[in-house]
């Protein structure tokens, strides 16, 4: 099929590249001329494991192209994906100016029947608005469908190629056929394509992310209680996760969820609820608890150092909001580092991918080339991201480098018993100190 993808952010680029890989002709459109030029030269603008090899191959085999021109990009396209940003406005609601702007431009450019697909996470009712905008100037028939994405950063290619399900919101039989054809190579294992109306598809995305954020938050509160009761949240997680009604995934307690999706989507759904006269109390609790959870280790470390962090050197492992990404949006690490430095501590940090993204935001901390370099003469280590290399460190080396064997672990990477045997003072989440 001939596909256009408008917007080459994270979602657009993964969508475009993966559909090229399944044999389609894909043209990606972006207004950023620099970025387009770089992509035309085969330079990938984001870090996502497994994507680059597909990106380079599909450019070489001429299935993946880039342009700044919308009219050129959508030429002969059977489907047009809109993968544009929907940043939160000041009141928390998603700002639709990019999506509706492109929809407005699209109308007069359409020459034949086409399916326009909302891929961005958009408020319920957006498909109708996009349809209206296009219809203002369109001379041909078209459909607008909602097709939310459920990709996780870091494993986006796998999530795209082997989706648990594909959700499509449309009432048009034509559009259903087009979407079935488009996704058929990805649904070979029998995972379903679920058709529903546009509003329900839009709602599904918010419900999924909010539910997952709530699941994590619930576990974080169980962890907070475990600490007070002398129970171990990791055992409780195993104990409940084996119940198939609950499920094993997204039950890991820690220093809260971050990233570009959960915080934004939970906030947006709460705002939508409010706009429609409904007070979604669970979501307010999720936001408040998550906010507190992010900096939960600060009181513990301050107390450990007798009430003041002034002059202490704190090693930090991890900046990204989660492993396998360089994304630092809403990353708990940044807020923690700001508090540490404001309290007079010196911070030495290591992250395998995200340091370049932080240097401008936090110029006054020390960036180290290895995890061990960050430990040199530090009074304590704080861990904010569960990169695999932090899971099995050389504890002997750690002991020698650190001034004192003290670890504050926001991601529960180590067994309490191991740390105790090795003589570390070890604080983690929801487990005995
Ligand atoms: C999330 C969803 O998982 C995707 O399905 C969705 O498509 C995406 O948002 C989106 O809306 O675009 P993502 O933000 O990439 O994906 O990352 P997740 O792997 O879901 O992690 C989100 C946050 O939850 C991270 O900060 C992670 O550390 C935290 N988390 C996750 C926990 O604290 N505990 C867990 O058990 C799982």
TrEMBL record:
GO biological process, one term: UDP-glucuronate biosynthetic process
Every UDP-glucose/GDP-mannose dehydrogenase C-terminal domain range: 315-416
Protein name stated in the entry: UDP-glucose 6-dehydrogenase
Cited NCBIfam families: NDP-sugDHase
Pathway named in the protein's UniProt entry: Nucleotide-sugar biosynthesis; UDP-alpha-D-glucuronate biosynthesis; UDP-alpha-D-glucuronate from UDP-alpha-D-glucose: step 1/1
Coiled-coil regions, chain positions: none
Binding locations of NAD(+): 30, 35, 86, 121, 153, 264, 329
Pfam families: UDPG_MGDP_dh, UDPG_MGDP_dh_C, UDPG_MGDP_dh_N
Annotated keywords: NAD, Oxidoreductase
Catalytic function, reaction form: UDP-alpha-D-glucose + 2 NAD(+) + H2O = UDP-alpha-D-glucuronate + 2 NADH + 3 H(+)
Residues that coordinate or bind substrate: 150-153, 205, 250-254, 258, 322
Stated family: Belongs to the UDP-glucose/GDP-mannose dehydrogenase family.
């Amino acid at each position: 099929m001939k596909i256009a993808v408008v917007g080459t952010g994270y979602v657009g680029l993964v969508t475009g590249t993966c559909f090229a890989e399944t044999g389609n002709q894909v043209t990606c459109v972006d207004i950023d001329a620099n970025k387009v030029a770089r992509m035309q030269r085969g330079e990938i603008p984001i870090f996502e494991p497994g994507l680059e090899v597909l990106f380079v191959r599909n450019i070489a085999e001429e299935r993946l192209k880039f342009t700044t021109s919308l009219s050129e990009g959508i030429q002969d396209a059977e489907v047009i994906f809109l993968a544009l940003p929907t940043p939160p406005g000041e009141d928390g609601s998603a700002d639709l100016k990019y999506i509706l702007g492109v929809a407005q431009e699209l109308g007069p450019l359409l020459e034949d029947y086409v399916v326009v697909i909302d891929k961005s996470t958009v408020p319920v009712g957006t498909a109708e608005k996009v349809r209206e905008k296009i219809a203002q100037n369109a001379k041909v028939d078209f459909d607008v469908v909602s097709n939310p994405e459920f990709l996780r950063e870091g494993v986006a290619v796998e999530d795209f190629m082997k989706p648990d399900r594909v959700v499509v919101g449309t009432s048009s039989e034509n559009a259903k056929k087009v979407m079935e054809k488009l996704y058929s190579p990805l649904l070979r294992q029998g995972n379903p394509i679920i058709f529903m109306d546009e509003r329900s598809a839009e709602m599904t995305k918010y419900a999924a992310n909010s539910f997952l954020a709530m699941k994590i938050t619930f576990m974080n509160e169980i962890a907070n209680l475990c600490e007070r009761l002398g129970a171990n949240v990791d055992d409780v997680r195993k104990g409940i996760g084996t119940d198939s009604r609950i499920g094993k995934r997204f039950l890991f307690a820690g220093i809260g969820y971050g990233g570009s999706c959960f915080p934004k989507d939970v906030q947006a759904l709460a705002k939508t609820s409010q706009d429609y006269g409904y007070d979604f109390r669970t979501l307010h609790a999720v936001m408040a608890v998550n906010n507190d959870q992010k900096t939960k280790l600060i009181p513990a470390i301050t107390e450990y150092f007798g009430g003041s962090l002034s002059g202490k050197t704190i090693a930090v492992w991890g900046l990204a909001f989660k492993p396998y990404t360089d994304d630092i949006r809403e990353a708990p690490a940044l807020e923690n580092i700001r508090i540490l430095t404001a309290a007079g501590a010196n911070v030495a940090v290591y992250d395998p991918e995200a340091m370049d993204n932080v240097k401008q935001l936090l110029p006054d901390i020390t960036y180290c080339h290895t995890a061990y370099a960050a430990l040199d003469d530090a009074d304590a280590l704080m861990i904010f991201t569960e990169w695999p290399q932090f899971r099995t460190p050389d504890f002997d080396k750690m002991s020698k480098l650190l001034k004192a064997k003290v670890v504050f672990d926001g991601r529960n990477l180590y067994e309490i018993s191991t740390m105790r045997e090795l003589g570390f003072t070890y604080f983690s989440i929801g487990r005995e100190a």
